[in-house]
Design a protein that fits this description.
The complex is a heterodimer. Chain A has 2 domains: 2-45, no CATH class; 52-113, CPE0013-like (CPE0013-like fold), CATH 3.10.530. In chain A, 19% of the residues lie in helices and 35% in strands. Chain A contains 2 helices and 9 strands. Chain A has helices at 34-45, 78-87, and strands at 2-6, 15-20, 26-29, 48-49, 52-59, 62-69, 73-74, 99-101, 111-113. In chain A, the strands form 3 sheets. Chain A has a 4-stranded antiparallel beta sheet. A 3-stranded antiparallel beta sheet of chain A has the order 1-2-3, covered by helices on one side. Chain B is an alpha/beta fold. Chain B has 3 domains: 1-126 and 262-332, FAD/NAD(P)-binding domain; 129-260, FAD/NAD(P)-binding domain (3-Layer(bba) Sandwich), CATH 3.50.50; 334-421. Helix content of chain B is 20%, strand content 35%. Chain B has helices spanning 15-26, 63-76, 130-133, 146-156, 171-182, 201-208, 267-271, 309-327, and strands at 2-11, 31-34, 50-52, 61-62, 80-82, 85-92, 100-106, 110-121, 125-127, 143-145, 163-167, 186-191, 215-216, 219-225, 232-239, 242-243, 249-252, 255-258, 262-264, 296-298, 336-340, 344-348, 351-352, 358-364, 368-377, 380-390, 396-400, 416-420. In chain B, strands 1, 2, 5, 6, 7, 8 and 20 form a 7-stranded mixed beta sheet that branches. In chain B, strands 10-18-11-12-13 form a 5-stranded parallel beta sheet. Classes of the chains: A alpha+beta, B alpha/beta. At the A-B interface, strand 5 and strand 6 of A face strand 4, helix 2, helix 4 and helix 6 of B.
Protein backbone atom coordinates (compact mmCIF):
# COMPACT_ATOMS: atom_id res chain seq x y z
CA UNK A 1 0.00 0.00 0.00
CA UNK A 2 1.20 3.51 -0.73
CA UNK A 3 0.02 6.75 0.88
CA UNK A 4 0.83 10.35 -0.05
CA UNK A 5 1.37 13.28 2.28
CA UNK A 6 2.52 16.88 2.05
CA UNK A 7 5.02 17.54 4.82
CA UNK A 8 4.21 20.50 7.06
CA UNK A 9 7.39 20.50 9.14
CA UNK A 10 8.65 23.53 7.19
CA UNK A 11 7.39 25.77 4.35
CA UNK A 12 9.05 23.75 1.56
CA UNK A 13 6.21 21.21 1.76
CA UNK A 14 7.87 18.06 0.40
CA UNK A 15 5.52 15.60 -1.31
CA UNK A 16 6.05 12.42 0.65
CA UNK A 17 5.30 8.83 -0.32
CA UNK A 18 4.85 6.25 2.41
CA UNK A 19 5.18 2.63 1.37
CA UNK A 20 3.62 0.08 3.68
CA UNK A 21 5.21 -3.31 3.13
CA UNK A 22 3.53 -6.72 3.48
CA UNK A 23 5.40 -7.13 6.78
CA UNK A 24 3.94 -3.75 7.90
CA UNK A 25 7.33 -2.08 7.46
CA UNK A 26 7.15 1.64 6.67
CA UNK A 27 9.33 3.38 4.12
CA UNK A 28 9.22 7.10 3.33
CA UNK A 29 10.47 8.72 0.13
CA UNK A 30 10.35 12.26 -1.27
CA UNK A 31 11.54 13.86 1.96
CA UNK A 32 14.45 16.31 1.97
CA UNK A 33 15.17 15.81 5.68
CA UNK A 34 14.60 13.51 8.63
CA UNK A 35 11.58 15.50 9.82
CA UNK A 36 9.65 14.47 6.73
CA UNK A 37 10.09 10.80 7.56
CA UNK A 38 8.87 11.32 11.12
CA UNK A 39 5.92 13.36 9.86
CA UNK A 40 4.71 10.73 7.35
CA UNK A 41 5.02 7.87 9.83
CA UNK A 42 3.14 9.78 12.54
CA UNK A 43 0.43 10.86 10.10
CA UNK A 44 -0.02 7.22 9.07
CA UNK A 45 0.11 5.46 12.41
CA UNK A 46 -1.35 7.93 14.90
CA UNK A 47 -2.34 11.31 13.43
CA UNK A 48 -3.05 13.88 16.13
CA UNK A 49 -4.30 17.49 16.14
CA UNK A 50 -4.69 20.28 18.67
CA UNK A 51 -8.40 21.13 18.83
CA UNK A 52 -9.59 24.68 19.37
CA UNK A 53 -13.30 25.48 19.72
CA UNK A 54 -15.66 27.54 21.85
CA UNK A 55 -18.03 26.86 24.78
CA UNK A 56 -21.25 28.65 25.60
CA UNK A 57 -20.70 31.40 28.16
CA UNK A 58 -23.64 33.71 27.56
CA UNK A 59 -22.19 37.04 28.76
CA UNK A 60 -23.66 40.13 27.12
CA UNK A 61 -20.43 40.98 25.29
CA UNK A 62 -19.02 37.46 25.10
CA UNK A 63 -21.44 34.71 24.09
CA UNK A 64 -18.70 32.13 23.43
CA UNK A 65 -15.50 31.39 25.34
CA UNK A 66 -12.53 29.98 23.37
CA UNK A 67 -10.94 26.71 24.58
CA UNK A 68 -8.14 24.37 23.43
CA UNK A 69 -6.74 20.94 24.14
CA UNK A 70 -3.54 21.02 26.22
CA UNK A 71 -1.92 18.52 23.81
CA UNK A 72 -2.69 17.17 20.34
CA UNK A 73 -5.32 14.41 20.45
CA UNK A 74 -5.92 11.50 18.11
CA UNK A 75 -8.02 12.52 15.09
CA UNK A 76 -10.54 9.80 15.96
CA UNK A 77 -11.21 11.51 19.29
CA UNK A 78 -11.97 14.93 17.77
CA UNK A 79 -15.69 14.50 17.05
CA UNK A 80 -16.63 13.06 20.47
CA UNK A 81 -14.55 15.83 22.07
CA UNK A 82 -16.32 18.57 20.10
CA UNK A 83 -19.68 17.07 21.10
CA UNK A 84 -18.72 17.34 24.76
CA UNK A 85 -17.31 20.88 24.40
CA UNK A 86 -20.52 22.07 22.73
CA UNK A 87 -22.73 20.51 25.41
CA UNK A 88 -21.15 22.63 28.18
CA UNK A 89 -22.47 25.91 29.56
CA UNK A 90 -19.77 27.77 31.45
CA UNK A 91 -20.23 30.28 34.27
CA UNK A 92 -18.12 33.44 34.60
CA UNK A 93 -15.69 34.27 36.13
CA UNK A 94 -13.21 32.15 34.23
CA UNK A 95 -9.43 32.59 34.12
CA UNK A 96 -7.26 31.82 31.13
CA UNK A 97 -5.77 28.33 31.54
CA UNK A 98 -8.61 27.10 33.78
CA UNK A 99 -9.46 23.43 33.15
CA UNK A 100 -12.83 22.94 31.45
CA UNK A 101 -12.64 19.19 30.77
CA UNK A 102 -10.23 17.00 32.75
CA UNK A 103 -8.47 13.99 31.21
CA UNK A 104 -10.78 13.51 28.22
CA UNK A 105 -11.55 9.81 27.62
CA UNK A 106 -8.49 8.91 29.73
CA UNK A 107 -6.16 10.34 27.08
CA UNK A 108 -4.32 12.52 29.57
CA UNK A 109 -5.44 15.56 27.57
CA UNK A 110 -7.35 18.41 29.22
CA UNK A 111 -9.41 21.17 27.65
CA UNK A 112 -8.58 24.62 29.03
CA UNK A 113 -9.96 28.15 28.59
CA UNK A 114 -7.83 30.37 26.35
CA UNK A 115 -9.42 33.64 27.48
CA UNK A 116 -10.46 35.15 30.81
CA UNK A 117 -14.00 36.41 31.29
CA UNK A 118 -15.96 38.14 34.04
CA UNK B 1 -15.50 69.01 25.87
CA UNK B 2 -12.98 67.08 27.93
CA UNK B 3 -9.32 67.41 26.95
CA UNK B 4 -6.38 65.20 27.85
CA UNK B 5 -2.70 65.71 27.08
CA UNK B 6 -0.28 62.83 26.50
CA UNK B 7 3.26 62.42 25.22
CA UNK B 8 2.04 59.67 22.89
CA UNK B 9 -1.37 58.47 21.73
CA UNK B 10 -1.67 55.06 20.08
CA UNK B 11 -4.66 54.52 17.78
CA UNK B 12 -5.85 50.92 18.00
CA UNK B 13 -5.37 48.43 20.84
CA UNK B 14 -4.53 45.26 18.92
CA UNK B 15 -1.22 43.44 18.78
CA UNK B 16 0.60 46.41 17.24
CA UNK B 17 -0.88 49.11 19.48
CA UNK B 18 -0.24 47.26 22.71
CA UNK B 19 3.40 46.43 21.92
CA UNK B 20 4.10 50.00 20.75
CA UNK B 21 2.39 51.66 23.75
CA UNK B 22 4.26 49.47 26.26
CA UNK B 23 7.57 50.39 24.66
CA UNK B 24 6.87 54.14 24.96
CA UNK B 25 5.48 53.90 28.50
CA UNK B 26 8.55 51.94 29.62
CA UNK B 27 10.64 55.09 29.19
CA UNK B 28 8.34 57.06 31.47
CA UNK B 29 6.24 58.91 28.90
CA UNK B 30 2.49 59.51 29.39
CA UNK B 31 0.90 57.15 26.89
CA UNK B 32 -2.68 56.37 25.89
CA UNK B 33 -4.37 53.77 23.69
CA UNK B 34 -7.68 54.52 21.95
CA UNK B 35 -9.56 51.30 21.10
CA UNK B 36 -13.02 51.15 19.53
CA UNK B 37 -13.96 47.68 20.84
CA UNK B 38 -14.84 46.73 24.43
CA UNK B 39 -11.60 44.80 24.95
CA UNK B 40 -7.94 45.18 24.07
CA UNK B 41 -6.64 42.55 21.64
CA UNK B 42 -8.05 43.42 18.22
CA UNK B 43 -8.43 40.67 15.65
CA UNK B 44 -6.48 38.17 17.80
CA UNK B 45 -9.55 37.71 20.01
CA UNK B 46 -11.49 36.01 17.23
CA UNK B 47 -8.52 33.92 16.01
CA UNK B 48 -9.13 31.08 18.47
CA UNK B 49 -6.87 28.64 16.59
CA UNK B 50 -3.26 28.06 17.67
CA UNK B 51 0.02 28.88 15.99
CA UNK B 52 0.73 32.31 17.48
CA UNK B 53 3.72 33.31 19.58
CA UNK B 54 6.42 30.85 18.47
CA UNK B 55 8.94 33.71 18.10
CA UNK B 56 7.63 36.03 20.80
CA UNK B 57 6.93 33.55 23.63
CA UNK B 58 8.72 30.42 22.30
CA UNK B 59 5.49 28.45 22.63
CA UNK B 60 2.41 27.88 20.54
CA UNK B 61 -0.53 29.98 21.71
CA UNK B 62 -4.02 30.75 20.46
CA UNK B 63 -4.92 34.31 19.42
CA UNK B 64 -6.84 35.15 22.62
CA UNK B 65 -3.95 33.90 24.77
CA UNK B 66 -1.42 36.00 22.86
CA UNK B 67 -3.68 39.05 23.17
CA UNK B 68 -4.34 38.56 26.87
CA UNK B 69 -0.66 38.26 27.74
CA UNK B 70 -0.09 41.69 26.20
CA UNK B 71 -3.32 43.13 27.64
CA UNK B 72 -2.21 42.09 31.14
CA UNK B 73 1.07 43.97 30.66
CA UNK B 74 -0.85 47.04 29.51
CA UNK B 75 -3.17 46.83 32.52
CA UNK B 76 -0.17 46.53 34.84
CA UNK B 77 1.43 49.60 33.25
CA UNK B 78 0.50 53.28 33.46
CA UNK B 79 -0.84 53.31 29.88
CA UNK B 80 -4.27 54.97 29.90
CA UNK B 81 -6.74 52.89 27.83
CA UNK B 82 -9.84 54.49 26.30
CA UNK B 83 -12.07 51.54 25.33
CA UNK B 84 -15.19 51.85 23.16
CA UNK B 85 -13.70 55.04 21.74
CA UNK B 86 -13.14 55.93 18.11
CA UNK B 87 -10.75 58.53 16.71
CA UNK B 88 -12.77 60.47 14.13
CA UNK B 89 -10.17 62.98 13.13
CA UNK B 90 -6.43 63.42 13.41
CA UNK B 91 -4.97 66.88 12.78
CA UNK B 92 -2.16 69.20 13.68
CA UNK B 93 -2.88 71.47 16.63
CA UNK B 94 -3.50 75.11 15.75
CA UNK B 95 -2.05 76.27 19.08
CA UNK B 96 1.39 74.76 19.49
CA UNK B 97 3.90 73.53 16.93
CA UNK B 98 4.58 69.80 16.99
CA UNK B 99 1.30 68.95 18.76
CA UNK B 100 -1.32 66.65 17.29
CA UNK B 101 -5.02 66.62 18.07
CA UNK B 102 -7.26 63.57 18.05
CA UNK B 103 -11.02 64.08 18.09
CA UNK B 104 -12.64 61.06 19.73
CA UNK B 105 -16.22 59.82 20.12
CA UNK B 106 -17.10 57.30 22.77
CA UNK B 107 -20.14 55.63 24.31
CA UNK B 108 -18.29 55.73 27.65
CA UNK B 109 -16.50 59.11 27.68
CA UNK B 110 -18.68 61.10 25.26
CA UNK B 111 -16.87 63.43 22.90
CA UNK B 112 -13.30 64.21 23.93
CA UNK B 113 -10.07 65.67 22.62
CA UNK B 114 -6.62 64.17 22.99
CA UNK B 115 -3.50 66.27 22.47
CA UNK B 116 -0.20 64.54 21.95
CA UNK B 117 3.38 65.25 20.88
CA UNK B 118 3.47 61.95 19.05
CA UNK B 119 0.96 59.54 17.53
CA UNK B 120 1.28 55.88 16.58
CA UNK B 121 -1.04 54.56 13.88
CA UNK B 122 -1.91 50.91 14.58
CA UNK B 123 -5.44 50.53 13.25
CA UNK B 124 -4.82 47.23 11.48
CA UNK B 125 -6.47 46.26 8.23
CA UNK B 126 -9.81 45.53 6.60
CA UNK B 127 -10.96 42.60 4.53
CA UNK B 128 -11.59 42.92 0.83
CA UNK B 129 -15.25 42.44 0.07
CA UNK B 130 -17.43 41.32 -2.83
CA UNK B 131 -17.24 44.81 -4.33
CA UNK B 132 -13.43 44.63 -4.45
CA UNK B 133 -13.37 41.56 -6.66
CA UNK B 134 -16.60 42.14 -8.62
CA UNK B 135 -18.42 38.80 -8.76
CA UNK B 136 -21.35 38.96 -11.22
CA UNK B 137 -24.83 37.77 -10.28
CA UNK B 138 -27.69 38.64 -7.95
CA UNK B 139 -27.27 40.22 -4.53
CA UNK B 140 -28.85 37.80 -2.04
CA UNK B 141 -27.98 37.48 1.67
CA UNK B 142 -25.53 34.87 2.90
CA UNK B 143 -22.39 36.46 1.42
CA UNK B 144 -19.81 37.78 3.86
CA UNK B 145 -16.09 37.97 4.52
CA UNK B 146 -14.40 35.05 6.26
CA UNK B 147 -13.31 37.35 9.10
CA UNK B 148 -16.86 38.47 9.80
CA UNK B 149 -18.01 34.85 9.88
CA UNK B 150 -15.11 34.12 12.25
CA UNK B 151 -16.29 36.79 14.64
CA UNK B 152 -19.92 35.63 14.46
CA UNK B 153 -19.00 32.02 15.22
CA UNK B 154 -16.18 32.47 17.72
CA UNK B 155 -17.36 35.43 19.79
CA UNK B 156 -21.04 36.15 19.17
CA UNK B 157 -22.15 32.52 18.85
CA UNK B 158 -24.02 32.62 15.53
CA UNK B 159 -23.65 30.10 12.70
CA UNK B 160 -23.96 32.08 9.44
CA UNK B 161 -25.18 29.08 7.38
CA UNK B 162 -24.83 25.34 6.91
CA UNK B 163 -23.82 24.73 3.29
CA UNK B 164 -20.67 26.72 2.72
CA UNK B 165 -18.39 27.67 -0.14
CA UNK B 166 -15.24 29.74 0.41
CA UNK B 167 -13.67 32.01 -2.21
CA UNK B 168 -9.94 32.50 -1.83
CA UNK B 169 -7.42 30.18 -0.22
CA UNK B 170 -5.93 32.77 2.13
CA UNK B 171 -5.20 31.58 5.66
CA UNK B 172 -8.36 33.10 7.16
CA UNK B 173 -10.48 31.25 4.59
CA UNK B 174 -8.69 27.95 5.27
CA UNK B 175 -8.95 28.35 9.03
CA UNK B 176 -12.67 29.07 8.60
CA UNK B 177 -13.12 25.92 6.48
CA UNK B 178 -12.00 23.88 9.48
CA UNK B 179 -13.88 26.01 11.99
CA UNK B 180 -17.19 25.72 10.10
CA UNK B 181 -16.70 21.97 9.73
CA UNK B 182 -16.02 21.61 13.44
CA UNK B 183 -19.11 23.74 14.08
CA UNK B 184 -21.23 21.14 12.25
CA UNK B 185 -21.47 22.82 8.82
CA UNK B 186 -20.62 21.31 5.43
CA UNK B 187 -17.89 23.12 3.48
CA UNK B 188 -18.29 22.14 -0.17
CA UNK B 189 -15.29 23.80 -1.79
CA UNK B 190 -12.59 26.44 -1.70
CA UNK B 191 -12.21 28.35 -4.99
CA UNK B 192 -8.85 30.00 -5.78
CA UNK B 193 -8.17 32.13 -8.84
CA UNK B 194 -4.38 31.62 -8.70
CA UNK B 195 -2.74 28.37 -9.82
CA UNK B 196 -1.25 27.97 -6.31
CA UNK B 197 -2.82 28.28 -2.82
CA UNK B 198 -2.40 31.64 -1.06
CA UNK B 199 -2.36 30.08 2.41
CA UNK B 200 0.45 28.16 4.09
CA UNK B 201 0.85 24.40 3.51
CA UNK B 202 0.05 23.51 7.09
CA UNK B 203 -3.40 25.06 6.70
CA UNK B 204 -4.01 23.34 3.35
CA UNK B 205 -3.27 20.01 5.02
CA UNK B 206 -4.95 20.51 8.40
CA UNK B 207 -7.95 22.62 7.32
CA UNK B 208 -8.84 21.14 3.91
CA UNK B 209 -7.27 17.71 3.38
CA UNK B 210 -8.23 16.53 6.88
CA UNK B 211 -11.88 16.99 5.89
CA UNK B 212 -11.64 16.12 2.17
CA UNK B 213 -12.66 19.66 1.18
CA UNK B 214 -11.86 20.17 -2.53
CA UNK B 215 -9.58 23.09 -3.45
CA UNK B 216 -10.19 24.34 -7.00
CA UNK B 217 -7.05 26.18 -8.17
CA UNK B 218 -7.26 28.41 -11.27
CA UNK B 219 -11.05 28.61 -10.87
CA UNK B 220 -13.34 31.61 -10.41
CA UNK B 221 -16.89 32.11 -9.21
CA UNK B 222 -18.54 33.38 -12.39
CA UNK B 223 -22.05 33.87 -11.02
CA UNK B 224 -23.94 34.08 -7.75
CA UNK B 225 -27.51 32.77 -7.90
CA UNK B 226 -30.41 33.19 -5.47
CA UNK B 227 -33.17 35.68 -4.74
CA UNK B 228 -33.39 36.41 -1.02
CA UNK B 229 -30.74 33.96 0.14
CA UNK B 230 -27.85 32.67 -1.94
CA UNK B 231 -28.82 29.29 -3.48
CA UNK B 232 -25.85 28.32 -5.61
CA UNK B 233 -22.73 29.55 -7.35
CA UNK B 234 -21.36 28.86 -10.80
CA UNK B 235 -17.68 27.91 -10.86
CA UNK B 236 -15.62 28.30 -14.03
CA UNK B 237 -12.08 27.02 -14.60
CA UNK B 238 -9.46 29.31 -16.10
CA UNK B 239 -7.63 28.13 -19.19
CA UNK B 240 -4.63 30.33 -20.01
CA UNK B 241 -6.23 33.05 -17.92
CA UNK B 242 -9.52 32.94 -19.86
CA UNK B 243 -12.78 31.55 -18.45
CA UNK B 244 -13.52 28.13 -19.90
CA UNK B 245 -17.34 28.40 -19.98
CA UNK B 246 -17.92 24.87 -21.27
CA UNK B 247 -16.43 23.25 -18.21
CA UNK B 248 -18.34 25.38 -15.69
CA UNK B 249 -20.27 23.65 -12.93
CA UNK B 250 -22.66 24.59 -10.17
CA UNK B 251 -22.34 24.17 -6.41
CA UNK B 252 -25.38 24.52 -4.16
CA UNK B 253 -24.78 26.52 -0.99
CA UNK B 254 -26.48 28.86 1.47
CA UNK B 255 -23.37 30.79 2.49
CA UNK B 256 -20.42 32.19 0.59
CA UNK B 257 -17.36 33.32 2.55
CA UNK B 258 -14.77 35.62 0.99
CA UNK B 259 -11.11 35.33 1.92
CA UNK B 260 -9.65 37.48 -0.82
CA UNK B 261 -7.07 39.62 0.89
CA UNK B 262 -6.64 42.46 3.34
CA UNK B 263 -6.15 46.19 2.89
CA UNK B 264 -4.53 48.47 5.51
CA UNK B 265 -7.17 50.66 7.19
CA UNK B 266 -6.04 54.21 6.42
CA UNK B 267 -9.15 56.42 6.18
CA UNK B 268 -7.93 58.41 9.15
CA UNK B 269 -4.36 58.66 7.87
CA UNK B 270 -5.51 59.83 4.45
CA UNK B 271 -7.69 62.58 5.94
CA UNK B 272 -4.76 63.69 8.08
CA UNK B 273 -2.68 64.22 4.92
CA UNK B 274 -0.39 61.24 5.45
CA UNK B 275 1.22 60.02 2.27
CA UNK B 276 0.33 56.41 1.43
CA UNK B 277 2.12 53.84 -0.70
CA UNK B 278 -0.07 53.15 -3.76
CA UNK B 279 1.30 49.62 -3.84
CA UNK B 280 0.62 48.43 -0.29
CA UNK B 281 -1.95 51.04 0.81
CA UNK B 282 -0.03 51.71 4.02
CA UNK B 283 1.75 54.95 4.96
CA UNK B 284 5.13 55.62 3.39
CA UNK B 285 7.58 55.56 6.28
CA UNK B 286 11.23 56.36 6.85
CA UNK B 287 13.68 54.03 8.56
CA UNK B 288 12.23 55.08 11.95
CA UNK B 289 8.71 54.07 10.81
CA UNK B 290 7.74 57.75 10.85
CA UNK B 291 5.30 59.00 8.21
CA UNK B 292 5.68 62.21 6.23
CA UNK B 293 3.94 63.97 9.17
CA UNK B 294 6.48 64.73 11.87
CA UNK B 295 5.73 62.81 15.07
CA UNK B 296 3.25 60.39 13.47
CA UNK B 297 4.51 56.80 13.27
CA UNK B 298 2.91 53.60 11.92
CA UNK B 299 3.28 49.89 12.69
CA UNK B 300 1.51 46.56 12.29
CA UNK B 301 -1.08 45.75 9.65
CA UNK B 302 -1.95 49.41 9.04
CA UNK B 303 1.53 49.73 7.57
CA UNK B 304 1.59 46.48 5.59
CA UNK B 305 -0.22 43.17 6.03
CA UNK B 306 1.81 40.71 8.12
CA UNK B 307 1.32 36.96 8.29
CA UNK B 308 2.86 36.46 11.73
CA UNK B 309 1.70 38.42 14.75
CA UNK B 310 5.16 37.89 16.24
CA UNK B 311 6.56 40.15 13.51
CA UNK B 312 3.86 42.72 14.28
CA UNK B 313 4.94 42.84 17.92
CA UNK B 314 8.61 43.19 16.97
CA UNK B 315 7.98 45.92 14.41
CA UNK B 316 5.73 47.79 16.84
CA UNK B 317 8.30 47.74 19.64
CA UNK B 318 10.73 49.23 17.19
CA UNK B 319 8.21 51.98 16.31
CA UNK B 320 7.73 52.58 20.05
CA UNK B 321 11.45 52.90 20.73
CA UNK B 322 11.75 55.38 17.86
CA UNK B 323 8.92 57.41 19.39
CA UNK B 324 10.91 57.50 22.64
CA UNK B 325 13.91 58.91 20.75
CA UNK B 326 11.64 61.39 18.99
CA UNK B 327 10.24 62.59 22.32
CA UNK B 328 13.79 62.91 23.66
CA UNK B 329 14.78 64.82 20.50
CA UNK B 330 17.46 62.24 19.70
CA UNK B 331 15.84 60.81 16.57
CA UNK B 332 18.14 62.11 13.89
CA UNK B 333 19.79 60.70 10.84
CA UNK B 334 19.92 61.07 7.10
CA UNK B 335 17.31 58.94 5.35
CA UNK B 336 18.32 57.13 2.17
CA UNK B 337 16.08 55.22 -0.21
CA UNK B 338 15.43 51.48 -0.27
CA UNK B 339 14.10 50.00 -3.50
CA UNK B 340 12.33 46.72 -4.19
CA UNK B 341 14.46 44.96 -6.78
CA UNK B 342 13.95 41.80 -8.84
CA UNK B 343 11.13 39.50 -7.65
CA UNK B 344 10.35 41.67 -4.62
CA UNK B 345 6.83 43.09 -4.47
CA UNK B 346 7.56 45.64 -1.76
CA UNK B 347 9.98 46.54 1.03
CA UNK B 348 9.03 48.26 4.29
CA UNK B 349 10.34 50.67 5.44
CA UNK B 350 11.15 52.49 2.22
CA UNK B 351 14.18 54.28 3.77
CA UNK B 352 17.29 53.32 5.70
CA UNK B 353 19.88 55.12 7.84
CA UNK B 354 23.55 54.74 8.74
CA UNK B 355 23.11 55.50 12.45
CA UNK B 356 21.99 52.07 13.60
CA UNK B 357 20.74 48.63 12.59
CA UNK B 358 17.99 48.48 9.95
CA UNK B 359 15.20 45.91 9.83
CA UNK B 360 13.36 45.34 6.53
CA UNK B 361 10.23 43.34 5.77
CA UNK B 362 9.39 42.27 2.22
CA UNK B 363 7.28 39.97 0.10
CA UNK B 364 8.45 37.77 -2.73
CA UNK B 365 6.67 37.76 -6.09
CA UNK B 366 7.85 34.22 -6.84
CA UNK B 367 7.71 30.70 -5.44
CA UNK B 368 11.23 29.27 -5.29
CA UNK B 369 13.31 26.71 -3.41
CA UNK B 370 16.92 27.59 -2.64
CA UNK B 371 16.46 31.34 -3.07
CA UNK B 372 18.81 34.15 -2.05
CA UNK B 373 17.85 37.55 -0.70
CA UNK B 374 20.46 40.04 -1.89
CA UNK B 375 20.94 43.58 -0.62
CA UNK B 376 23.11 45.78 -2.77
CA UNK B 377 24.09 49.40 -3.23
CA UNK B 378 24.92 49.85 -6.89
CA UNK B 379 27.59 47.24 -7.61
CA UNK B 380 28.45 46.63 -3.99
CA UNK B 381 26.81 43.60 -2.37
CA UNK B 382 26.01 44.47 1.25
CA UNK B 383 24.50 41.17 2.32
CA UNK B 384 23.18 37.88 0.95
CA UNK B 385 20.91 35.57 2.93
CA UNK B 386 19.94 32.06 1.83
CA UNK B 387 16.33 30.94 2.09
CA UNK B 388 15.28 27.30 1.67
CA UNK B 389 11.97 28.41 0.29
CA UNK B 390 10.26 31.69 -0.62
CA UNK B 391 6.65 32.29 -1.66
CA UNK B 392 4.37 35.37 -1.86
CA UNK B 393 2.32 34.36 1.20
CA UNK B 394 5.32 34.23 3.54
CA UNK B 395 6.85 37.52 4.57
CA UNK B 396 10.62 37.71 4.58
CA UNK B 397 12.49 39.79 7.12
CA UNK B 398 16.12 40.80 6.97
CA UNK B 399 18.21 42.84 9.36
CA UNK B 400 21.27 44.81 8.36
CA UNK B 401 23.74 45.73 11.03
CA UNK B 402 25.23 49.20 11.21
CA UNK B 403 28.70 47.75 10.50
CA UNK B 404 27.48 46.07 7.31
CA UNK B 405 26.67 49.49 5.85
CA UNK B 406 30.11 50.91 6.63
CA UNK B 407 31.54 50.14 3.21
CA UNK B 408 29.11 52.55 1.56
CA UNK B 409 28.73 55.16 4.31
CA UNK B 410 31.13 57.65 2.75
CA UNK B 411 29.33 57.78 -0.60
CA UNK B 412 26.52 60.36 -0.83
CA UNK B 413 22.94 59.51 -1.97
CA UNK B 414 23.44 55.78 -1.61
CA UNK B 415 20.38 53.67 -2.42
CA UNK B 416 19.81 50.11 -1.34
CA UNK B 417 18.11 47.59 -3.58
CA UNK B 418 16.77 44.30 -2.24
CA UNK B 419 16.25 41.43 -4.71
CA UNK B 420 15.37 37.76 -4.57
CA UNK B 421 17.50 35.62 -6.87
Amino acid sequence: MEKEYICIACPIGCHLKLHVGADKSLEVSGNKCKRGEVYAITEFSEPTRVVTATCRLGLENLERLPVKTTKPILKDHINPLLKEIYSLKLEAPIRRGQTIIKNFMNTGVDVVATRSAG
Amino acid sequence: MKEYIFDCVVIGGGAAGMAAALEVEKSGFDTAIVEREEHLGGILLQCIHNGFGLHEFKEELTGPEYAERFAERVQASSVKVFLESTVMELSESGEAAGMHELHCYSSVYGVFLLKARSVILSMGCRERNRGNIGIPGSRPSGIMTAGLAQRLVNIDGYIPGEQIVIIGSGDIGLIMARRMTWAGCKVHAVIEIQPYPSGITRNIVQCLEDFDIPLYLSHVVSEIRGKDRIESIRVTPLKNGIQDEENSFEIKCDTLLLSVGLVPENELSRKAGIELSPQINGPLVDSFLMTNKKGIFACGNVLHVHDLVDYVSRESRSAGSNVVKYLNSTLTGVQNKVKAGANVRYVVPQKFNFQGDNQFYMRSMIVKNGAKVEVRAGNIIIKTVNHNHVQPSEMISISIKKEELEKISGIPDQQLEISII
